[in-house]
Design a protein that fits this description.
alpha/beta, 7-stranded mixed β-sheet, 16 strands
Protein backbone atom coordinates (compact mmCIF):
# COMPACT_ATOMS: atom_id res chain seq x y z
CA UNK A 1 0.00 0.00 0.00
CA UNK A 2 2.69 2.41 -1.11
CA UNK A 3 2.08 6.02 -0.14
CA UNK A 4 -1.08 5.26 1.88
CA UNK A 5 -1.74 7.03 5.15
CA UNK A 6 -4.36 5.78 7.58
CA UNK A 7 -6.13 8.63 9.33
CA UNK A 8 -8.00 8.61 12.60
CA UNK A 9 -7.17 8.54 16.29
CA UNK A 10 -6.68 5.75 18.78
CA UNK A 11 -7.11 7.20 22.26
CA UNK A 12 -7.18 6.35 25.93
CA UNK A 13 -10.94 6.74 26.18
CA UNK A 14 -11.51 3.64 24.06
CA UNK A 15 -8.98 1.59 26.04
CA UNK A 16 -10.33 2.79 29.38
CA UNK A 17 -13.88 1.97 28.33
CA UNK A 18 -12.79 -1.53 27.27
CA UNK A 19 -11.33 -1.94 30.77
CA UNK A 20 -14.63 -0.97 32.38
CA UNK A 21 -13.22 2.20 33.90
CA UNK A 22 -15.14 5.27 35.04
CA UNK A 23 -15.01 7.73 32.10
CA UNK A 24 -14.68 10.67 34.51
CA UNK A 25 -11.26 9.45 35.65
CA UNK A 26 -9.71 10.10 32.23
CA UNK A 27 -9.54 13.79 33.20
CA UNK A 28 -6.71 12.80 35.59
CA UNK A 29 -4.48 12.00 32.60
CA UNK A 30 -2.16 14.55 31.04
CA UNK A 31 -0.23 13.81 27.87
CA UNK A 32 3.04 15.09 26.45
CA UNK A 33 2.95 14.54 22.70
CA UNK A 34 6.23 14.38 20.82
CA UNK A 35 5.53 14.29 17.08
CA UNK A 36 8.05 12.16 15.25
CA UNK A 37 8.46 9.31 17.71
CA UNK A 38 7.08 5.90 16.67
CA UNK A 39 6.35 7.42 13.28
CA UNK A 40 4.27 5.24 10.95
CA UNK A 41 1.32 5.33 8.57
CA UNK A 42 -0.83 3.72 11.23
CA UNK A 43 -1.41 5.63 14.51
CA UNK A 44 1.20 3.67 16.47
CA UNK A 45 2.16 6.58 18.70
CA UNK A 46 -1.50 7.10 19.66
CA UNK A 47 -1.99 3.41 20.38
CA UNK A 48 1.14 3.24 22.54
CA UNK A 49 0.14 6.36 24.47
CA UNK A 50 -3.39 5.03 25.01
CA UNK A 51 -2.26 1.63 26.28
CA UNK A 52 0.31 3.06 28.69
CA UNK A 53 -2.07 5.81 29.80
CA UNK A 54 -4.84 3.33 30.55
CA UNK A 55 -2.42 1.16 32.52
CA UNK A 56 -1.11 4.12 34.54
CA UNK A 57 -4.67 5.27 35.25
CA UNK A 58 -5.63 1.78 36.44
CA UNK A 59 -2.58 1.82 38.74
CA UNK A 60 -3.47 5.27 40.08
CA UNK A 61 -7.08 4.19 40.65
CA UNK A 62 -5.98 1.14 42.65
CA UNK A 63 -3.47 3.23 44.62
CA UNK A 64 -6.24 5.64 45.61
CA UNK A 65 -8.54 2.77 46.56
CA UNK A 66 -5.94 1.15 48.80
CA UNK A 67 -5.02 4.47 50.41
CA UNK A 68 -8.66 5.31 51.09
CA UNK A 69 -8.50 8.44 48.96
CA UNK A 70 -11.39 9.76 46.92
CA UNK A 71 -9.17 11.54 44.41
CA UNK A 72 -7.10 9.55 41.94
CA UNK A 73 -3.46 10.68 41.60
CA UNK A 74 -2.61 12.53 38.42
CA UNK A 75 -1.27 10.47 35.52
CA UNK A 76 1.34 11.75 33.09
CA UNK A 77 2.00 10.03 29.76
CA UNK A 78 5.07 11.24 27.87
CA UNK A 79 5.52 10.06 24.29
CA UNK A 80 9.29 10.01 24.80
CA UNK A 81 9.08 7.60 27.71
CA UNK A 82 6.47 5.50 25.90
CA UNK A 83 8.56 5.27 22.71
CA UNK A 84 11.66 4.23 24.68
CA UNK A 85 9.68 1.55 26.52
CA UNK A 86 8.05 0.24 23.34
CA UNK A 87 11.54 -0.30 21.89
CA UNK A 88 13.12 -1.38 25.19
CA UNK A 89 14.63 -4.53 23.69
CA UNK A 90 16.66 -2.37 21.29
CA UNK A 91 18.00 -0.08 24.01
CA UNK A 92 19.11 -2.90 26.29
CA UNK A 93 22.83 -3.31 26.87
CA UNK A 94 24.29 -6.09 28.99
CA UNK A 95 27.88 -5.33 29.91
CA UNK A 96 28.00 -2.91 26.99
CA UNK A 97 26.91 -5.60 24.50
CA UNK A 98 24.08 -4.90 22.08
CA UNK A 99 21.15 -7.33 22.21
CA UNK A 100 20.78 -10.19 19.78
CA UNK A 101 18.03 -9.24 17.32
CA UNK A 102 15.92 -11.61 15.24
CA UNK A 103 17.59 -14.88 14.29
CA UNK A 104 18.68 -15.30 10.63
CA UNK A 105 15.67 -17.49 9.82
CA UNK A 106 13.18 -15.06 11.40
CA UNK A 107 12.39 -12.83 8.45
CA UNK A 108 10.32 -12.20 5.34
CA UNK A 109 10.92 -14.43 2.32
CA UNK A 110 9.79 -14.05 -1.28
CA UNK A 111 7.63 -16.88 -2.53
CA UNK A 112 6.30 -17.77 -5.96
CA UNK A 113 3.14 -15.76 -5.32
CA UNK A 114 4.06 -13.21 -2.66
CA UNK A 115 5.76 -13.22 0.74
CA UNK A 116 5.88 -15.36 3.86
CA UNK A 117 7.17 -14.44 7.34
CA UNK A 118 8.86 -17.07 9.48
CA UNK A 119 9.76 -16.96 13.16
CA UNK A 120 12.63 -19.11 14.38
CA UNK A 121 14.22 -17.31 17.32
CA UNK A 122 13.78 -20.31 19.62
CA UNK A 123 15.82 -23.44 18.76
CA UNK A 124 12.78 -25.74 18.75
CA UNK A 125 10.93 -23.44 16.35
CA UNK A 126 13.96 -23.32 14.05
CA UNK A 127 14.19 -27.12 14.02
CA UNK A 128 10.49 -27.49 13.20
CA UNK A 129 10.70 -24.90 10.43
CA UNK A 130 13.60 -26.65 8.74
CA UNK A 131 12.03 -30.08 9.20
CA UNK A 132 8.75 -28.93 7.66
CA UNK A 133 10.51 -27.46 4.65
CA UNK A 134 13.08 -30.24 4.31
CA UNK A 135 15.74 -27.56 4.06
CA UNK A 136 19.27 -27.16 5.38
CA UNK A 137 20.08 -24.31 7.77
CA UNK A 138 21.34 -22.17 4.93
CA UNK A 139 19.73 -18.84 4.11
CA UNK A 140 20.62 -18.99 0.41
CA UNK A 141 19.26 -22.49 -0.04
CA UNK A 142 16.10 -21.59 1.84
CA UNK A 143 15.58 -18.47 -0.29
CA UNK A 144 15.80 -20.55 -3.46
CA UNK A 145 13.44 -23.19 -2.13
CA UNK A 146 10.78 -20.75 -0.93
CA UNK A 147 10.90 -18.79 -4.19
CA UNK A 148 9.35 -21.80 -5.90
CA UNK A 149 6.52 -22.41 -3.42
CA UNK A 150 3.29 -20.60 -2.62
CA UNK A 151 3.13 -18.59 0.58
CA UNK A 152 -0.03 -20.31 1.82
CA UNK A 153 1.47 -23.76 1.17
CA UNK A 154 4.52 -22.82 3.25
CA UNK A 155 2.30 -21.41 6.02
CA UNK A 156 0.23 -24.56 6.30
CA UNK A 157 3.10 -27.05 6.09
CA UNK A 158 5.17 -25.23 8.72
CA UNK A 159 2.23 -24.84 11.11
CA UNK A 160 1.37 -28.52 10.69
CA UNK A 161 4.89 -29.32 11.92
CA UNK A 162 4.54 -27.04 14.96
CA UNK A 163 6.60 -24.23 13.48
CA UNK A 164 5.72 -20.63 12.71
CA UNK A 165 5.14 -19.12 9.29
CA UNK A 166 2.48 -16.73 8.02
CA UNK A 167 1.66 -15.72 4.45
CA UNK A 168 1.43 -12.00 3.77
CA UNK A 169 -2.18 -10.82 3.51
CA UNK A 170 -3.72 -7.53 2.50
CA UNK A 171 -6.04 -5.90 5.03
CA UNK A 172 -8.99 -6.86 2.80
CA UNK A 173 -8.00 -10.50 2.62
CA UNK A 174 -7.54 -10.68 6.37
CA UNK A 175 -10.88 -8.95 6.99
CA UNK A 176 -12.60 -11.65 4.93
CA UNK A 177 -11.06 -14.49 6.95
CA UNK A 178 -12.74 -16.54 9.63
CA UNK A 179 -10.15 -15.53 12.19
CA UNK A 180 -10.72 -11.82 11.62
CA UNK A 181 -14.45 -12.42 12.11
CA UNK A 182 -13.75 -14.26 15.36
CA UNK A 183 -11.55 -11.43 16.62
CA UNK A 184 -14.19 -8.84 15.67
CA UNK A 185 -16.75 -10.61 17.86
CA UNK A 186 -14.62 -10.04 20.94
CA UNK A 187 -13.97 -6.77 22.79
CA UNK A 188 -10.48 -5.31 22.99
CA UNK A 189 -10.26 -6.49 26.61
CA UNK A 190 -12.46 -9.38 27.69
CA UNK A 191 -13.45 -9.28 31.35
CA UNK A 192 -15.74 -11.30 33.56
CA UNK A 193 -16.40 -13.08 36.85
CA UNK A 194 -15.23 -16.56 37.75
CA UNK A 195 -16.90 -17.03 41.13
CA UNK A 196 -18.85 -15.31 43.90
CA UNK A 197 -16.01 -14.97 46.40
CA UNK A 198 -16.24 -12.09 48.90
CA UNK A 199 -14.76 -8.66 48.35
CA UNK A 200 -10.97 -8.59 48.28
CA UNK A 201 -9.29 -7.27 51.41
CA UNK A 202 -5.81 -6.01 50.59
CA UNK A 203 -2.85 -6.64 52.89
CA UNK A 204 -2.21 -3.65 55.17
CA UNK A 205 0.22 -1.21 53.57
CA UNK A 206 3.78 -1.23 54.81
CA UNK A 207 4.91 1.88 56.67
CA UNK A 208 6.22 4.40 54.15
CA UNK A 209 8.16 7.62 54.36
CA UNK A 210 7.30 10.73 52.38
CA UNK A 211 9.88 9.65 49.79
CA UNK A 212 8.57 6.09 49.40
CA UNK A 213 6.54 5.48 46.23
CA UNK A 214 2.90 4.47 46.19
CA UNK A 215 2.82 0.79 45.22
CA UNK A 216 -0.74 -0.22 44.38
CA UNK A 217 0.17 -3.90 43.88
CA UNK A 218 2.25 -4.21 47.07
CA UNK A 219 1.68 -7.47 48.94
CA UNK A 220 0.09 -9.20 45.96
CA UNK A 221 1.49 -12.42 44.55
CA UNK A 222 1.59 -12.92 40.79
CA UNK A 223 2.36 -16.25 39.11
CA UNK A 224 3.87 -15.41 35.72
CA UNK A 225 3.45 -18.21 33.16
CA UNK A 226 4.29 -16.15 30.10
CA UNK A 227 6.97 -15.93 27.46
CA UNK A 228 8.26 -13.17 25.22
CA UNK A 229 7.01 -10.47 24.83
CA UNK A 230 3.56 -9.12 25.69
CA UNK A 231 3.00 -11.28 28.78
CA UNK A 232 6.38 -10.49 30.34
CA UNK A 233 5.77 -6.77 29.69
CA UNK A 234 2.52 -7.06 31.65
CA UNK A 235 4.10 -8.84 34.61
CA UNK A 236 7.14 -6.53 34.52
CA UNK A 237 4.66 -3.68 34.98
CA UNK A 238 2.94 -5.40 37.91
CA UNK A 239 6.37 -5.89 39.49
CA UNK A 240 7.07 -2.17 39.08
CA UNK A 241 3.90 -1.48 41.05
CA UNK A 242 5.00 -3.62 43.98
CA UNK A 243 3.72 -7.12 43.22
CA UNK A 244 5.78 -10.17 44.14
CA UNK A 245 6.10 -11.63 40.63
CA UNK A 246 7.46 -15.16 40.22
CA UNK A 247 7.98 -16.23 36.64
CA UNK A 248 7.77 -20.00 36.16
CA UNK A 249 9.09 -21.72 33.04
CA UNK A 250 9.54 -25.36 32.01
CA UNK A 251 13.20 -26.25 32.63
CA UNK A 252 13.74 -27.49 29.08
CA UNK A 253 12.65 -24.25 27.39
CA UNK A 254 14.84 -21.41 28.62
CA UNK A 255 13.95 -17.88 27.60
CA UNK A 256 16.20 -16.05 25.17
CA UNK A 257 18.85 -14.38 27.34
CA UNK A 258 18.36 -10.81 26.14
CA UNK A 259 14.58 -11.06 26.21
CA UNK A 260 14.76 -12.31 29.77
CA UNK A 261 17.07 -9.46 30.76
CA UNK A 262 14.78 -6.88 29.15
CA UNK A 263 11.52 -8.13 30.68
CA UNK A 264 12.83 -9.58 33.95
CA UNK A 265 13.03 -6.36 35.96
CA UNK A 266 11.38 -6.58 39.35
CA UNK A 267 10.73 -10.34 39.08
CA UNK A 268 12.17 -13.60 40.26
CA UNK A 269 12.56 -16.52 37.83
CA UNK A 270 12.15 -20.23 38.59
CA UNK A 271 12.13 -23.40 36.51
CA UNK A 272 9.45 -25.92 37.37
CA UNK A 273 8.32 -29.01 35.47
CA UNK A 274 4.56 -29.15 35.97
CA UNK A 275 4.40 -32.75 34.78
CA UNK A 276 6.62 -33.83 37.70
CA UNK A 277 6.17 -31.15 40.34
CA UNK A 278 2.47 -30.36 40.33
CA UNK A 279 2.40 -30.27 44.14
CA UNK A 280 4.94 -27.43 44.19
CA UNK A 281 2.86 -25.46 41.74
CA UNK A 282 -0.30 -26.06 43.78
CA UNK A 283 1.49 -24.67 46.84
CA UNK A 284 2.32 -21.53 44.90
CA UNK A 285 -1.26 -21.27 43.66
CA UNK A 286 -2.65 -21.70 47.17
CA UNK A 287 -1.65 -18.14 48.14
CA UNK A 288 -1.43 -16.49 44.71
CA UNK A 289 -3.56 -13.44 43.93
CA UNK A 290 -3.03 -13.34 40.16
CA UNK A 291 -2.07 -15.91 37.52
CA UNK A 292 -0.96 -14.62 34.11
CA UNK A 293 -0.59 -17.03 31.19
CA UNK A 294 0.80 -16.34 27.73
CA UNK A 295 0.59 -19.66 25.93
CA UNK A 296 -1.83 -20.41 23.09
CA UNK A 297 -5.37 -21.35 24.17
CA UNK A 298 -5.54 -24.95 25.34
CA UNK A 299 -1.79 -25.44 25.71
CA UNK A 300 -1.90 -25.48 29.53
CA UNK A 301 -5.32 -27.04 30.03
CA UNK A 302 -3.88 -30.46 30.85
CA UNK A 303 -2.26 -28.94 33.94
CA UNK A 304 -5.59 -27.63 35.23
CA UNK A 305 -4.78 -24.07 34.26
CA UNK A 306 -8.03 -22.97 32.66
CA UNK A 307 -9.50 -19.93 34.43
CA UNK A 308 -12.37 -22.03 35.77
CA UNK A 309 -10.12 -24.79 37.10
CA UNK A 310 -7.76 -22.29 38.73
CA UNK A 311 -10.62 -20.39 40.36
CA UNK A 312 -12.11 -23.64 41.68
CA UNK A 313 -8.86 -24.31 43.56
CA UNK A 314 -8.17 -20.70 44.50
CA UNK A 315 -11.42 -18.70 44.85
CA UNK A 316 -11.01 -14.97 44.34
CA UNK A 317 -8.14 -15.38 41.90
CA UNK A 318 -7.56 -13.00 39.00
CA UNK A 319 -6.64 -15.00 35.87
CA UNK A 320 -5.16 -12.99 32.99
CA UNK A 321 -4.67 -14.69 29.63
CA UNK A 322 -2.84 -13.53 26.54
CA UNK A 323 -2.94 -15.13 23.10
CA UNK A 324 -1.79 -14.22 19.61
CA UNK A 325 -4.97 -14.85 17.60
CA UNK A 326 -7.78 -14.85 20.17
CA UNK A 327 -9.72 -17.50 22.03
CA UNK A 328 -11.82 -18.84 19.16
CA UNK A 329 -11.79 -19.07 15.39
CA UNK A 330 -9.79 -21.33 13.06
CA UNK A 331 -6.44 -19.93 14.21
CA UNK A 332 -7.17 -19.79 17.94
CA UNK A 333 -4.89 -22.73 18.73
CA UNK A 334 -1.97 -21.48 16.66
CA UNK A 335 1.23 -20.04 18.01
CA UNK A 336 1.99 -16.47 17.08
CA UNK A 337 4.23 -13.49 17.63
CA UNK A 338 3.93 -9.76 16.97
CA UNK A 339 5.80 -9.93 13.66
CA UNK A 340 3.53 -12.73 12.40
CA UNK A 341 0.35 -10.93 13.40
CA UNK A 342 1.54 -7.81 11.55
CA UNK A 343 2.00 -9.88 8.38
CA UNK A 344 -1.29 -11.76 8.66
CA UNK A 345 -3.52 -8.77 9.42
CA UNK A 346 -2.32 -6.52 6.61
CA UNK A 347 -0.22 -4.19 8.76
CA UNK A 348 2.91 -5.19 6.83
CA UNK A 349 1.17 -4.20 3.58
CA UNK A 350 0.04 -0.84 4.98
CA UNK A 351 3.55 -0.08 6.23
CA UNK A 352 5.28 -1.40 3.10
CA UNK A 353 7.01 0.52 0.33
CA UNK A 354 8.29 -0.16 -3.17
CA UNK A 355 6.46 -3.47 -3.35
CA UNK A 356 8.09 -4.83 -0.20
CA UNK A 357 6.23 -5.46 3.08
CA UNK A 358 7.09 -3.18 5.96
CA UNK A 359 6.77 -3.26 9.74
CA UNK A 360 5.70 -1.03 12.60
CA UNK A 361 8.46 1.08 14.20
CA UNK A 362 8.23 -1.08 17.33
CA UNK A 363 6.74 -4.40 18.36
CA UNK A 364 3.75 -2.30 19.26
CA UNK A 365 1.23 -5.15 19.31
CA UNK A 366 3.31 -6.94 21.94
CA UNK A 367 4.02 -3.93 24.09
CA UNK A 368 0.57 -2.37 23.75
CA UNK A 369 -1.20 -5.63 24.54
CA UNK A 370 1.10 -6.16 27.51
CA UNK A 371 0.12 -2.83 29.06
CA UNK A 372 -3.55 -3.52 28.37
CA UNK A 373 -3.23 -6.88 30.14
CA UNK A 374 -1.56 -5.27 33.17
CA UNK A 375 -4.30 -2.63 33.21
CA UNK A 376 -6.93 -5.35 33.11
CA UNK A 377 -5.40 -7.04 36.15
CA UNK A 378 -5.24 -3.76 38.08
CA UNK A 379 -8.86 -2.91 37.25
CA UNK A 380 -9.95 -6.42 38.24
CA UNK A 381 -8.28 -5.97 41.63
CA UNK A 382 -10.04 -2.64 42.14
CA UNK A 383 -13.39 -4.14 41.15
CA UNK A 384 -12.83 -7.06 43.51
CA UNK A 385 -12.33 -4.67 46.41
CA UNK A 386 -15.81 -3.26 45.75
CA UNK A 387 -17.78 -6.25 44.52
CA UNK A 388 -15.81 -9.43 45.17
CA UNK A 389 -15.67 -12.31 42.74
CA UNK A 390 -12.82 -14.06 41.03
CA UNK A 391 -12.06 -12.44 37.69
CA UNK A 392 -10.69 -13.25 34.27
CA UNK A 393 -9.06 -10.87 31.79
CA UNK A 394 -8.26 -11.83 28.18
CA UNK A 395 -6.44 -9.95 25.44
CA UNK A 396 -5.00 -10.92 22.06
CA UNK A 397 -2.38 -9.46 19.75
CA UNK A 398 -4.85 -9.77 16.88
CA UNK A 399 -7.39 -7.76 18.86
CA UNK A 400 -4.90 -4.96 19.37
CA UNK A 401 -4.06 -5.12 15.66
CA UNK A 402 -7.77 -4.78 14.81
CA UNK A 403 -7.98 -1.71 17.05
CA UNK A 404 -4.93 -0.20 15.38
CA UNK A 405 -6.09 -0.83 11.81
CA UNK A 406 -9.86 -0.61 12.02
CA UNK A 407 -10.95 0.65 15.40
CA UNK A 408 -9.79 4.21 14.86
CA UNK A 409 -11.52 7.03 16.69
CA UNK A 410 -12.98 9.88 14.63
CA UNK A 411 -10.60 12.70 13.76
CA UNK A 412 -10.72 15.54 16.24
CA UNK A 413 -11.78 13.43 19.25
CA UNK A 414 -9.30 14.26 21.97
CA UNK A 415 -7.73 11.55 24.08
CA UNK A 416 -7.75 13.67 27.26
CA UNK A 417 -8.41 17.21 28.26
CA UNK A 418 -4.79 18.09 28.99
CA UNK A 419 -2.28 17.68 26.18
CA UNK A 420 1.05 19.42 25.68
CA UNK A 421 3.14 19.19 22.52
CA UNK A 422 6.92 19.19 22.68
CA UNK A 423 9.70 18.52 20.21
CA UNK A 424 10.69 14.88 19.89
CA UNK A 425 14.23 15.66 21.03
CA UNK A 426 17.46 14.10 19.90
CA UNK A 427 16.95 10.58 21.20
CA UNK A 428 15.76 8.27 23.99
CA UNK A 429 18.55 9.09 26.46
CA UNK A 430 16.33 10.95 28.99
CA UNK A 431 14.31 7.75 29.43
CA UNK A 432 17.24 5.32 29.76
CA UNK A 433 19.10 4.32 32.91
CA UNK A 434 21.97 2.11 34.01
CA UNK A 435 22.47 -0.16 37.00
CA UNK A 436 24.46 -3.18 38.12
CA UNK A 437 22.82 -6.59 38.15
CA UNK A 438 23.71 -10.27 38.50
CA UNK A 439 23.80 -10.31 34.68
CA UNK A 440 26.32 -7.46 34.49
CA UNK A 441 26.02 -3.73 34.01
CA UNK A 442 22.66 -3.00 32.37
CA UNK A 443 21.40 -0.12 30.28
CA UNK A 444 17.63 -0.23 29.99
CA UNK A 445 14.50 1.79 29.28
CA UNK A 446 12.75 3.25 32.30
CA UNK A 447 9.08 2.39 32.86
CA UNK A 448 6.59 4.68 31.08
CA UNK A 449 3.79 4.08 33.62
CA UNK A 450 3.77 7.27 35.69
CA UNK A 451 1.40 8.76 38.27
CA UNK A 452 1.87 11.22 41.13
CA UNK A 453 3.64 9.49 43.99
CA UNK A 454 4.19 6.30 41.99
CA UNK A 455 7.43 4.38 41.36
CA UNK A 456 9.91 5.57 38.76
CA UNK A 457 12.04 2.41 38.50
CA UNK A 458 11.95 -1.25 39.45
CA UNK A 459 12.99 -2.32 42.92
CA UNK A 460 15.33 -5.01 41.63
CA UNK A 461 17.18 -5.81 38.41
CA UNK A 462 16.73 -9.09 36.55
CA UNK A 463 18.71 -12.11 37.65
CA UNK A 464 19.68 -15.29 35.80
CA UNK A 465 16.85 -17.20 34.18
CA UNK A 466 15.49 -20.04 36.35
CA UNK A 467 17.85 -19.30 39.24
CA UNK A 468 15.27 -18.69 41.96
CA UNK A 469 13.51 -21.19 44.19
CA UNK A 470 9.83 -21.65 43.26
CA UNK A 471 8.56 -20.17 46.53
CA UNK A 472 7.03 -16.88 47.52
CA UNK A 473 9.21 -14.39 49.35
Amino acid sequence: MDGATVTGKVDIRHAWSALGGDPALVSAVSEVERPGVLDARLPVRDLARACVGACALAAAELAARRAGRAEVPGVRVDDGAVAAAFTSERHLRVGGREPVAFAPLSRLWRTADGWVRTHANYPHHRQRLLAALGAPEDVGALEAMLAGRSATEVEESVYAAGGLAVALRTPERWAASGQAAAVARRPLVERGRLDASPARVFPPPAPRSSSSPLLPAAGLRVLDLTRVLAGPVATRTLALLGADVLRVDPPGLPELADQHADTGFGKRSAALDLTRHQAEFEELLRTADVVVTGYRPGALDRFGLTPEALAARRPGLVVARLSAWGTDGPWAGRRGFDSLVQVATGIAVIEGAAGRPGALPAQALDHGTGYLLAAGVLRALTEQSHEGGGRYVRVALAGTAAWLTGGLRPDGEDGTGDTAREAAGSGPEPWLAERDSPLGRLRYALPPVSFTGGPTDWARPPGPWGADTPRWT
